[in-house]
Amino acid sequence: MQFVMFAKHLQEWPLAQAAAAVKAMGFDGLDLTVRPGGYVQPQDVEKELPHALRLCADAGLGVPMLTTAITEPGRDHSVALMATAAACGVRELKYGYHTYSRFGEFGAALDKARADLAASAKVAAEHGVRLNLHLHSGTFVTANPAIVAQMLAEHDPAVVGAYLDPGHMVIEGGVDVWRQGFEQLGARANLLAVKSMAHYFRPEEGRTGRWVNRMVPLAQGMVDWVKVWECLRAVGFDGIVSLHAEYQGGHSWKNLSVDELVDQTREDFAYLRACREKAGA
Asked: How many of the other CB atoms lie within 10 Å of CB of 210?
């Protein structure tokens, strides 16, 4: 099992500085963003990805996975990205998202997602990389574990896998759908996102207000990380664990500076490891 930090939340810093900070916190590696707005832009992947990996290696970090926006081979330099990742020895890729908006259109959105995934998987198989579908709450086709299980059933586990995310799964699935999802997807899970959320009541002028979700420190959130580790042990998970310090902007309970975010990440990482030890995982 490898523990990495998601690079998105450090992107105000040069990559070398971010890598040094991640190493100092005790992580094994970096979950590198290779997508629009990431550390590596897709159009520059052939030149910039090898350079980024060298910077991480200089800091003593591996890069066992990439977060991408791949959704189909013909867009966003996806073929070059997969080929370059393979040439650099990075096998695990986070796949991009398909969304739907208007009620009544989910079937069409799912059909497109399945067709695009099939085309992407063909390229991934040719290059020996794996695309992992992220369980993300909200208007995403992959919000529902049962839908993801259906999509995975159509593909070779060596080519397409699951990216479990208890934070999103608990928010989307309430009391127990996250656990049912782990049971459905555990055998296909290669990646695990670490974050937690809580419900906050937000008053609004002219109405009574509404409940919203906010990212919070792991010790304060709705995810029971001891139970998560117990379930992961039961399904034999031994993949990559990516800690997401999503404490910037409107989706967080506080808007932290990067320095504050690093301090909070250090606390989250210690809490995560303590929960794993308690679970005997």
From this structure: 10
Using a CB cutoff of 8 Å and minimum separation of 24, what contacts does 111-114 make?
A: 113/141, 113/142, 113/151, 114/151, 114/154
* Closest of 40, 43, 50, 39 to residue 8, by C-alpha: 39
Query: Residue 205's pLDDT band (boundaries 50, 70, 90)?
Result: low
pLDDT in tens, 229-260: 999 999 999 999 999 999 988 788 889 999 99
Beta bridge partners of 32: 66
Domain that holds residue 227: 2-279
Contacts of 194 (CB under 8 A, 6+ apart): 166, 167, 218, 241, 242, 243, 244, 268, 272
> Quick check: 206 pLDDT over 70?
no
- State phi, psi for 70 to the nearest 5 degrees: -60, 130
Residue 232 belongs to a domain with what CATH number?
A: 3.20.20.150
pTM as predicted = 0.95
Bridge partners, residue 197, by sequence: 215
Mean pLDDT, the chain, whole residue set: 95
Report how many domains make up the chain: 1
- β-partners of residue 133 are 162
Q: Which residues pair with 189 in a beta bridge?
A: 162
Which residues, other chains included, contact 183 with Cβ-Cβ below 8 Å and sequence gap of 6+? Answer: 231, 235
- C-alpha torsion angle, residues 179, 185, 189, 191 (rounded to 10): -50
Q: Is residue 203 over pLDDT 80?
A: no
